[in-house]
Amino acid sequence: MTGMFTALVLLLSAILCANAQLTPPNSFPHAWPGQPKGPLNAAWQQYFEVQSPLPNLTGLALPRSFAGNIPVNRAGHPNNTLFFWGFERQGRNGSLTVPAHANNSEPWIFWLQGGPGSSGMLGLSTENGPIHVLSNGSWVLNPFSWNTLADTIWIDQPVGTGFSTSDAKGYIADEDQMGEDFIEFLKNLVSVFPSLATRPLYLTGESYAGTYIPYIVKHIFAQSKPPVNLKKIAIGDGSLGSFATIRHLPVLNTIETYPSIIGYDQDVFNYFREQHHLCGFDLNLTYPQTGGNFPTLNLTQGLRATFLEATDTRVTGSSWREAIATEYAVRARTNPIMKRADYHERRGADALQWKRDISGRPNGTIDPWYGCDIFDEMRDYAVNFTFPWSNGGFDVYDIPDATHPEPDMDAGPFLNGPAGRAALHAPTSKNWSSSFNYPFGSVYNKSIGNEHGDPSVEPVAFLTPLFANASERNISFVFYSGNDDAQVQHRGTEVVIQNFTFGGVQGFTRKPATPWFDDDGNAAGIVHQERGLTYVLFTGAGHLVPQWKPAQALVFLREFVLGSNRNGTVVNSITGEVVGGENKTLAGDFMPGGDEIFYGSAKTEGTSTVPSATIAAWESFIATATLNVTVVSSSAASSSVKASTSPASVTEVLPSSTGSANNGALSVRMQRCWDMFAMILVVAVMPVAIGRLF
């Protein structure tokens, strides 16, 4: 066992050291025939218009659209551009190209993807765009596209993402530089489409756009003459807080929402509840929030964290325990327990051993292997012990999706083909990809800043002044979440809301409990509105809300983003008067998920259901379970929920967003190489501690 792990650590060390020397790709825009000379102005509209036939879209009636690369005007980086594809509102031909007019009140929408490093074309082609790619490679119209309600522009950003371009040294160093780039892009965009300068802009996005958008808004507010007329901001499943807040803190809530993750096992639930408490994740939410800001979260490291330094796990849904075993078994092929079939045959016995291990450990101690990384421990448990996730996949973006592999909806062949590339005026210096590992500061260095290598402070740290500035400008915010999302679960968003002040009060004054409904009268989730902030929770939607609930997402856009539906608005927090009323069954800490988990290979081949008796027993257990936790003091002076920097914990954020990720990057990364080699000694002397990996 020691020999195998020594070889494994050597392999991971080599990967880590190689990553320290990688150079980000160099790319530049392409000048297609007809490109005007001189500065950007309305004459460029004809050039950007998508006029050539689009492959695989023959016979599909689409509104006019415009696409191409627009520079960000960063000094010394002339090839840094952002790629956009904008569609006019359905039935409103010419809406993007009308001359500027102060009385033009037609709304327009920006959509930003997350990542960091994910393309907005991913959202266009699979979520809320007018055309969608299917798993067989064909394309269809999306009747629920957001451009049915307003001109909508999907964008690849920051520079270097998707079809956006950057030289090898031009990738953003931090989110402030991203915001500066975006402002310059906006200035150039409205030079081409002058009406966009005065029309109301609705800035929307999801996931890591929850980090991008607050920084963009901050930079818009800093302009003496903003290039656009910002009206409202909508952020879905957003990365608004620290990694500890949005990923690990909500784990118990995730299990309560979908107890099938742990097979409805009460002992396993009690274990995760204990870890949740020991890690300080059981924050006490009150309405309104009292006692000041929440204390800093101490994200204690376990032994496995050192192994994970060698690679990126953002887009994988498989277990690390299985991934490491499979990777090594391919090379060694000497240990039958690592082989998939044998491993799953042992699943039942291993689950019992896992429970014996946790029950035999002294109460009140954090797991030595996982530490406070209880999110991955939850995921690993499901993939190794719970059907149907034990087939190999756990989709953190949509819990009920246990297909493995998942259906591949790839826009790449369409976008990278010669016809599609030419029609969209896309660069020829690179191929489009849906997502990549973004190199902040033009280096691949995740030892700086957060888990993505982003040195910027998380937005919750400045949401209080940001909301104050927005209120002065009559600009409101919408935060929305999908109930089936585990990646950025709604509990994390609710903690963020209760941890900053808006309208003179910290957090909401009442717990969200007002139902909202789709156009067919079906319950769609929860809505709550106070003092310029709307919070919406979607039933049956994952991380990519418009993908899983397209009709409901369009109603949401119409009513709560573009519209001013008052459902869920607190009229009087003392008397409890709320427009639409409040439903006590919706006022819990979690909203139960669905009863079915679907599975299959690249398609849905079956669904897994739970016996009604099992569900009844669980509901009885969870209704009487006592959390038995100590209320965490909220008198700390911290301005945000973030991981502490004590020796036993992971540094989640830096205190400033102005530093460059370049400083000392290579030397720090090379030091990590030596740290990895040092782990060989740990493996040699602590085989028992890591034995649970298998």
General description of the model:
Its EC number is 3.4.16.-. It holds the Pfam family Peptidase_S10. The chain is an alpha/beta fold and 694 residues long. It has a domain at 246-284 and 297-334 and 342-412 and 598-627. Helix content is 32%, strand content 13%. It contains 22 helices and 19 strands. A 10-stranded mixed sheet has the order 1-2-6-3-7-8-10-15-14-13, with helices on both faces. Strand 18 and strand 19 form a beta hairpin. The N and C termini lie close together (10 Å). Residues 310-346 and 627-694 have low confidence and may be disordered.
Estimate the helix proportion, in percent.
Answer: 25-40%
What amount of the residues lies in strands? 5-15%
Strand order of the largest sheet: 1-2-6-3-7-8-10-15-14-13
Q: State the distance separating the first and last CA atoms.
A: 10 Å
Quaternary organisation of the protein chains: single chain
3D shape = globular
Q: What's the number of extended β-strand segments?
A: 19
Number of helices: 22
- Runs in which pLDDT lies below 50 for 5 or more consecutive residues are 310-346, 627-694
Alpha-carbon Rg, integer: 25 Å
EC number: 3.4.16.-
GO molecular function, one term: serine-type carboxypeptidase activity
Family: Belongs to the peptidase S10 family.
Keywords: Carboxypeptidase, Glycoprotein, Hydrolase, Protease, Signal
